[in-house]
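Changelog-adjacent note: as of this version, every example in the card shows the full chain rather than a window. The one below runs 424 residues end to end.
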Amino acid sequence: MMLLPQLPEKLGLQEYEARTGRTCKPPPQSSRRKNFEFEPLSTTALILEDRPSNLPAKSVEEALRHRQEYDEMVAEAKKREIKEAHKRKRIMKERFKQEENIASAMVIWINEILPNWEVMRSTRRVRELWWQGLPPSVRGKVWSLAVGNELNITPELYEIFLSRAKERWKSFSETSSENDTEGVSVADREASLELIKLDISRTFPSLYIFQKGGPYHDVLHSILGAYTCYRPDVGYVQGMSFIAAVLILNLEEADAFIAFANLLNKPCQLAFFRVDHSMMLKYFATFEVFFEENLSKLFLHFKSYSLTPDIYLIDWIFTLYSKSLPLDLACRVWDVFCRDGEEFLFRTGLGILRLYEDILLQMDFIHIAQFLTKLPEDITSEKLFSCIAAIQMQNSTKKWTQVFASVMKDIKEGDKNSSPALKS
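Full-length structure tokens:
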């Protein structure tokens, strides 16, 4: 048997063939192709690929079946593309229609309603237009008029309390003593400095406009600081920063402070921000009357877990939904809240529960509390307001104010079933 000479390590294949006169056949190609230029571009293309040469060719029936499958995939892809195009077109059409409606409504608000505010504000036409949402250009003005100024605050008065706040901040930064010349307590100092400072950084963080260095940081700080001097009996409470921030986005600084102070002076807001447990329990008891009336199945589900309204309603009411809902949707809730008053805050709460009723019925205590504390971000104005519109704020023949008045009379009886969270 003739042995082939060993191939030196550095001797190339061509040089070896030239010296010996022998040719070396390349090893058989594996079925795995290395030339990526000829690799199929997609999984669908695999259907139309011929089999490698070392494998049997496709039968005619198989080739036809693969061609049919490929054609079906292409047709399905085209259907999806057309469907997506129609969807985009519909969204653009709806957006264009919405912009047209806003522009048309703006003209009506500016030329007809605002010049005749007191006469027209309660008419059916205005109330229906109001329900659809206020045009952003007139939103601040309408809010100011609707909230009113029963406290008779002027821009000059705001400047006075802002100056006092700045003096207090300066004195706090210059001294480490627990009491300054005005006899401000440690709690007051924390409220005016640490809590406000901390809350501002957590106010609409995704917008960045209220954080340190942002265009509205100092304005928000000023309004909250001035309010603590204006209402030391209320002081600063977490959640206020969100309300002030929404007002700042729609009003000039002094006007925002005036609206802020008057808004927080309303009975419901005052009860919550002063943490008046007795009054809060009355609001919760009234809410539960309408909860049972509108959503009896979900009401019983919550009852079975002893899940009381304070667990989810406190945060919603404290910030007027501005922390819980997308900002544009929260502003629309504010629109109707300014029209209908405190009743609409609780009606909105019931609307949210109605919107997610099917989901909530499948959850236990912990998951319900977590869900309602952080609502889905994809909640839309159309869906929510459709659910709110379906909520009837009438129990038998009594409306919200009448039921609330009845609860006020029967508070001793209501205390027996009051929220454990608020009793503690």
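Structural remarks: The chain is about 65% helix and 0% strand.
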